[in-house]
C-alpha cells in the first residue's frame, strides 16, 4: 500500500510538472485527486487495514496530498507567469510607432492663388474687402460711367436676376466684374483707400478658356496725388512677387468707361523672357511676341469718383482688375488646355497641387 501510494505520488507529480497550460493542469488535478481518482480509490482501501497501518498510511497519504497540492500551486504560478509573459510579448503596443494618417486634403489651387495675391498686396498696405456678389445695376455699371443702354455694357455678358427693379439702383445682377465693389468702397467716405476686392464673378460664357463662374481681383488706391507712375509701380511689384523677380509689366493704351487713361496690362513672357524668341532662334510658342495679356487697369474716371462722392479735383485713384484663374494659369508650371478642369472636382487633376 505504501509503495503503491508513493508510486502514485511520483506519477501525479510528474503529470503536474508536465502540464503545459492551466487547463491541462486543472485536468491533471481532477483526474489524480478527484473523487474517482486512483488516489481516492486507494484511500477507500484504508478501511481494510489494521489500526496501526491505517494511521501510518493515513499520515503518509496526507503528506502526499499536501505535496501534490504544493506542486500544483507552484506549477499554476509558473504557468500563469508564462502566460502573462507571452501576452506582454504578443499584445504589446509600441506607442512610439507613427499612427496611420488619414488622407489629407488641401486648399483648392484658386484659393491658394487668392491667398498669394492677398499676401502680395497686403504688403503694400492694401486691405482685402468683400462686397455683394448679387449686386444692383447701379454699382455694376451706372456708377462706373456706363449709363443705361450704353453699348459697352454688352462686353460683360451679364446674368440678370429675376427680382424686382430698384427705383434708383435698377436691376439685380450677378457681379460680372469686381469693379462693382469700387463705388461701394468710395461711398463709405473713408479716404484714403487701398483695397483689394476679390470675389466670384459671373458671365454667360463657357468654353475651354471660360467658366460661367470665375474669380477676379480688383485693386483700388485713392489718395491725393496718385499717378500712373504709382500704378506702374504697383503692377511691377505684383508681377515680380507673383510670377518671379525677372518679370516686368507693360501698359498698353486701351479703353474702359470707368478709367481715363485706360490700359491693358501685359506681363513679360516667362518662357522667352519678353523677347518673343527662344535661344534656338525660333518664335516663342506661348506668347509669340514676348508679352502675355493680364488684364485691365487705369486711373479712375472723374465721373466714377463723383458717383462715389469723392471730389476728383482733390483725389485721384489708380485701379486694376483681372481674373484670378487666368493669372494663376499663366504662372509657370500650371498649363492646362481647358480651364474648366479647375471646377470639375477631378482629384486626378486637383491632387497635383
Ligand atoms: N472690370 C474690368 C473687366 O472685368 C477690368 C478692369 C479694367 C478693372 C480696368 C479695372 C480697370 O480696375 O481699371 O474687364
Automatic annotation (TrEMBL):
Its cofactor is Mg(2+). Residues 120-330 form the Aminoacyl-transfer RNA synthetases class-II family profile domain. Its EC number is 6.1.1.20. Mg(2+) binds at residue 260. GO terms for biological process: phenylalanyl-tRNA aminoacylation. Keywords: Aminoacyl-tRNA synthetase, ATP-binding, Cytoplasm, Ligase, Magnesium, Metal-binding, Nucleotide-binding, Protein biosynthesis. It catalyses: tRNA(Phe) + L-phenylalanine + ATP = L-phenylalanyl-tRNA(Phe) + AMP + diphosphate + H(+). One of its GO terms (molecular function) is magnesium ion binding. CDD domains: PheRS_alpha_core. It is an enzyme of class 6 (ligase). InterPro entries: aa-tRNA-synth_II, aa-tRNA-synth_II/BPL/LPL, Phe-tRNA-synth_IIc_asu, Phe-tRNA_ligase_II_N, Phe_tRNA_ligase_alpha1_bac, Phenylalanyl-tRNA_Synthase, tRNA-bd_arm. The keyword Protein biosynthesis applies. It is found in: Cytoplasm. Binds 2 magnesium ions per tetramer. Tetramer of two alpha and two beta subunits. Belongs to the class-II aminoacyl-tRNA synthetase family. Phe-tRNA synthetase alpha subunit type 1 subfamily. PANTHER family: PHENYLALANINE--TRNA LIGASE, MITOCHONDRIAL, PHENYLALANYL-TRNA SYNTHETASE. This is Phenylalanine--tRNA ligase alpha subunit. It comes from Candidatus Uhrbacteria bacterium RIFOXYC2_FULL_47_19. The gene is pheS.
Amino acid at each position: 500500500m505504501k509503495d503503491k501510494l508513493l508510486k502514485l505520488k511520483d506519477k501525479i507529480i510528474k503529470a503536474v510538472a508536465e502540464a503545459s497550460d492551466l487547463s491541462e493542469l486543472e485536468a491533471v488535478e481532477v483526474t489524480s485527486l478527484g473523487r474517482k481518482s486512483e488516489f481516492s480509490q486507494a484511500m477507500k482501501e484504508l478501511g481494510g487495514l489494521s489500526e496501526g497501518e491505517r494511521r501510518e498510511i493515513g499520515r503518509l497519504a496526507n503528506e502526499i496530498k499536501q505535496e501534490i497540492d504544493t506542486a500544483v500551486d507552484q506549477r499554476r504560478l509558473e504557468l500563469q507567469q508564462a502566460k502573462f509573459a507571452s501576452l506582454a510579448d504578443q499584445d504589446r503596443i509600441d506607442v512610439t510607432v507613427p499612427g496611420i494618417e488619414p488622407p489629407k486634403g488641401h486648399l483648392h489651387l484658386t484659393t491658394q492663388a487668392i491667398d498669394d495675391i492677398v499676401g502680395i498686396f497686403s504688403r503694400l498696405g492694401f486691405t482685402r474687402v468683400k462686397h455683394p456678389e448679387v449686386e444692383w445695376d447701379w454699382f455694376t455699371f451706372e456708377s462706373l460711367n456706363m449709363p443705361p443702354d450704353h453699348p459697352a455694357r454688352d462686353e460683360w455678358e451679364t446674368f440678370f436676376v429675376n427680382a424686382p427693379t430698384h427705383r434708383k439702383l435698377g436691376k439685380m445682377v450677378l457681379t460680372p466684374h469686381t469693379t462693382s465693389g469700387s463705388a461701394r468702397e468710395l461711398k463709405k467716405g473713408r479716404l484714403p483707400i487701398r483695397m483689394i476686392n476679390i470675389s466670384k464673378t459671373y458671365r454667360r460664357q463657357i468654353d475651354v478658356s471660360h467658366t460661367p463662374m470665375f474669380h477676379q481681383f480688383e485693386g483700388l488706391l485713392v489718395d491725393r496725388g496718385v499717378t500712373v507712375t504709382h500704378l506702374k509701380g504697383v503692377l511691377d511689384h505684383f508681377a515680380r512677387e507673383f510670377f518671379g523677380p525677372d518679370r516686368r509689366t507693360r501698359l498698353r493704351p486701351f479703353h474702359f468707361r470707368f478709367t481715363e487713361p485706360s490700359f491693358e496690362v501685359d506681363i513679360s513672357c516667362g518662357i522667352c523672357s519678353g523677347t518673343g524668341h527662344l535661344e534656338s532662334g525660333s518664335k516663342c510658342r506661348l506668347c509669340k511676341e514676348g508679352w502675355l495679356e493680364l488684364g485691365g487697369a487705369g486711373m479712375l474716371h472723374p465721373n466714377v469718383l463723383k458717383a462715389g462722392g469723392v471730389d476728383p479735383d482733390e483725389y485721384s485713384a489708380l485701379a486694376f482688375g483681372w481674373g484670378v484663374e487666368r493669372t494663376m494659369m499663366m504662372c509657370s508650371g500650371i498649363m492646362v488646355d481647358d480651364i474648366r478642369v479647375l471646377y470639375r472636382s477631378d482629384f486626378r487633376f486637383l491632387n497635383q497641387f
